[in-house]
């Protein structure tokens, strides 16, 4: 009730009706660029993790669990600010020495003494930094049971938009970036030459930004081109960067694995045009600037783990980009860091404390109900032919679900094995960051030549989110999102179906959005739609593109093509979840659930849509709004509510919105 603004006509602006009160009561914290129900729940989870990590009883309980104890050591090292201050910049200087030296901070540096291959391999393999191009082991989209080496564009620290767009906001970002480049170098001892040297690096980054491909709105469209154009699939045939012997480079990268890189090793190049242009830029750049550019990346990604005088540079820089002020409490940074590094170990603490068996049972029931609704609705799609409909049904039936947490975290030995390769020292916070990067990159590299593990989770249990994997054809709902306001065991089902139920429907629909539909039930990139169904689908989705492109947010037009996949999922998810709720009432002989105190005038069909809308209550700083519109694949929360509900006949009926009102337009868009 407190989130609502009941003075607003729900048929005119349902978002303001549902969230108008929330916006006045939830000011954006100084250290945040945006604020939302998702972020509030994430904060709540972080508060709980802080309490658990610092509890003597909890530490005693898990003292025989090596993975959890390693996570505690990582957290303690992060919290030891006194030691971090004492060490100052020395850890980064020691890291730089591992590369020999750096032209910016060492006047005795010479080009003849600098080894490009050694530096590049160490940066890419040990630090997981990609200054020229990204290289990783990924799923082979033609056969999702196999892995393949993937090359993709990388390079600039700032986004392509931030480097190239000619607006006041983007100019402000560039100014702040150049300032942190110079300031950081000065603190590391660069002296009077810092600004000139960093300006050379900046100009190189600018050239790289100009040749980067904008992969949105559809990465899959790009990948499809790779597949359709029959681009080289082996190392021997792939056009390498002119400055690098790829076979030698990969030999160094994979030297700690069992895989022997050969000329017939399969590779996929996602950004061929970028690779060619990047090679040209490299060839025309003096070796000294190349070295400075690469070492600048090292300094940028590691200096934030130093003492406060260095962290303050990042807070000042962040203020220009995001509009935030100040720094988060240290415990919050450390909790976030340990969750990102030892997510499954920390997830064990979270699950043991919060996750109830009935939450998983309820989620399984909802998934079953909503999947069945999706399959039943396939029969009513007059734009899809029978051949495509049959295969779509098979794919929907084959979707697997993961709920709460992966089973292995309850096995102490398996959990220990998960983190056996990462070293942690309670007295070396900076070097723990080095070990973390090296560990996760090596884990990825080790996957080459091995079958894809389709049971692996890409999110940790405390995460407030969910996802659909096209190559695994599975949906994942971590324990972190199976809580109020998305789900609560003693809430009416109207609220739960409007909350987590909609999220379930959303993720299922992702299997059939503009990207997901291109993968078959086994997770392979394959054309299984007929041409007639593809053409009909495009006409349906063009309606959504036009609708969402007509919206403005903070004075900027939304890109309906860039957000298409998420908009398809929102529209399908709310429809399927509402229909599943109706089926639940019918199956359980429930005509109407008990009215809620203070909301007696609202039916539970109305509460379903109110619950849905309120999970998207949110607020943005102008800087965050610009970034969301430029780079985000999700529509802002307000437009997710208005866009999907204005297409819903069920919403219009529940709220008795007259035809022609803003929330019940005569012409609507519908795909699924």
Automatic annotation (TrEMBL):
Residue stretches making up the Peptidase M13 C-terminal domain: 465-671
Q: Which residues form a coiled coil?
A: none
The cofactor(s) it depends on are: Zn(2+)
List each copy of the Peptidase M13 N-terminal domain by range: 10-406
Q: Which domain of life is it from?
A: Eukaryota
In terms of Gene3D superfamilies, this protein maps to:
Collagenase (Catalytic Domain) (3.40.390.10), Neutral endopeptidase , domain2 (1.10.1380.10)
A molecular function annotated in GO for this UniProt entry is: metalloendopeptidase activity
For the biological process aspect of GO, one term held by this record is: protein processing
Keywords carried by this UniProt record = Hydrolase, Metal-binding, Metalloprotease, Protease, Zinc
Membrane spanning residue stretches: none
Which cellular components does GO assign to this protein?
plasma membrane
Name it.
Endothelin-converting enzyme 1
Q: What is the lineage of its organism?
A: Eukaryota, Metazoa, Cnidaria, Anthozoa, Hexacorallia
């Amino acid at each position: 009730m407190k989130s609502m603004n009941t003075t607003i006509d729900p048929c005119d602006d349902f978002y303001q009706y549902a969230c108008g009160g929330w916006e006045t009561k939830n000011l954006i914290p100084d250290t945040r660029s945006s604020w939302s129900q998702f972020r509030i729940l994430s904060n709540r989870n972080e508060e709980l993790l802080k309490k658990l990590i610092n509890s003597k009883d909890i530490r005693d309980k898990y003292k025989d669990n090596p993975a959890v104890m390693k996570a505690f050591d990582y957290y303690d090292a992060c919290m030891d600010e006194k030691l971090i201050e004492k060490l100052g910049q020395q850890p980064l200087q020691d890291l730089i020495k591992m590369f020999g030296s750096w032209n910016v901070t060492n006047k005795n540096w010479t080009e003849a003494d600098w080894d490009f291959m050694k530096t590049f391999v160490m940066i890419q393999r040990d630090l997981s930094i990609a200054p020229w191009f990204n290289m990783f082991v990924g799923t082979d989209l033609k056969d999702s049971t196999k892995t393949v080496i993937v090359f993709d564009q990388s390079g600039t620290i700032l986004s392509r938009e931030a480097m190239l767009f000619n607006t006041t906001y983007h100019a402000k970002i560039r100014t702040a970036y150049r300032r942190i480049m110079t300031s950081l170098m000065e603190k590391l001892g660069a002296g009077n030459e810092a600004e000139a040297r960093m300006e050379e690096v900046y100009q190189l980054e600018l050239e790289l930004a100009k040749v980067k491909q904008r992969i949105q709105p559809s990465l899959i469209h790009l990948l499809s081109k790779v597949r359709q154009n029959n681009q080289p699939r082996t190392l021997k045939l792939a056009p390498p960067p002119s400055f690098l012997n790829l076979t030698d480079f990969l030999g160094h990268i994979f030297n700690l694995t069992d895989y022997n890189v050969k000329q017939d090793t399969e590779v996929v190049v996602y950004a061929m045009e970028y690779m060619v242009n990047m090679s040209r830029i490299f060839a025309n750049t003096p070796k000294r600037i190349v070295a400075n550019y690469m070492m600048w990346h090292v300094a940028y990604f590691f200096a934030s783990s130093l003492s406060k005088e260095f962290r303050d540079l990042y807070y000042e820089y962040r203020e220009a980009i995001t509009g935030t002020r100040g720094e988060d409490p240290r415990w919050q940074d450390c909790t976030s860091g340990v969750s990102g590094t030892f997510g499954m170990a920390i997830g064990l603490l979270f699950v043991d404390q919060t996750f109830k068996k009935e939450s998983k049972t309820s989620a399984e029931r909802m998934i079953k109900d909503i999947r069945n609704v999706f399959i039943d609705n396939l029969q009513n799609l007059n734009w899809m032919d029978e051949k495509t409909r049959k295969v779509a049904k098979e794919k929907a039936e084959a979707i697997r679900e993961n709920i709460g947490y992966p089973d292995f975290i309850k096995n102490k030995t398996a959990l220990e094995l998960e983190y056996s390769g990462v070293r942690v020292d309670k007295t070396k916070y900076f070097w723990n960051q080095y070990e973390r990067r090296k560990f996760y990159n090596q884990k990825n590299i080790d996957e080459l030549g091995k079958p894809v593990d389709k049971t692996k989770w890409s999110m940790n249990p405390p995460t407030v989110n969910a996802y659909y994997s096209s190559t695994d054809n599975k949906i994942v709902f971590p324990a972190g999102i199976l809580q109020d306001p998305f789900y609560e065991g003693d809430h009416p089902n109207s609220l739960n179906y409007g909350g987590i139920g909609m999220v379930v429907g959303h993720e299922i629909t992702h299997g059939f959005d503009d990207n997901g539909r291109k993968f078959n039930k086994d997770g392979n990139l394959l054309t299984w739609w007929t041409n007639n169904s593809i053409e009909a689908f495009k006409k349906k989705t063009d309606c959504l593109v036009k609708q969402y492109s007509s919206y403005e947010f903070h004075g900027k037009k939304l890109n309906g093509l860039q957000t298409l996949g998420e908009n398809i999922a929102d529209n399908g998810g709310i429809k399927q979840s509402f229909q599943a709720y109706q089926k639940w009432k019918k199956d359980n002989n429930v005509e109407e659930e008990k009215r809620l105190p203070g909301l007696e005038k609202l039916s539970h069909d109305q509460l379903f849509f109110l619950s849905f809308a309120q999970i998207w209550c949110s607020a943005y700083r102008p800087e965050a709004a610009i970034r969301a519109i430029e780079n985000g694949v999700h529509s802002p929360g307000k437009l997710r509510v208005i866009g999907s509900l204005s297409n819903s006949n069920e919403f219009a009926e529940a709220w008795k919105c007259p035809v022609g009102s803003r929330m019940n337009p005569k012409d609507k868009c519908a795909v699924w």
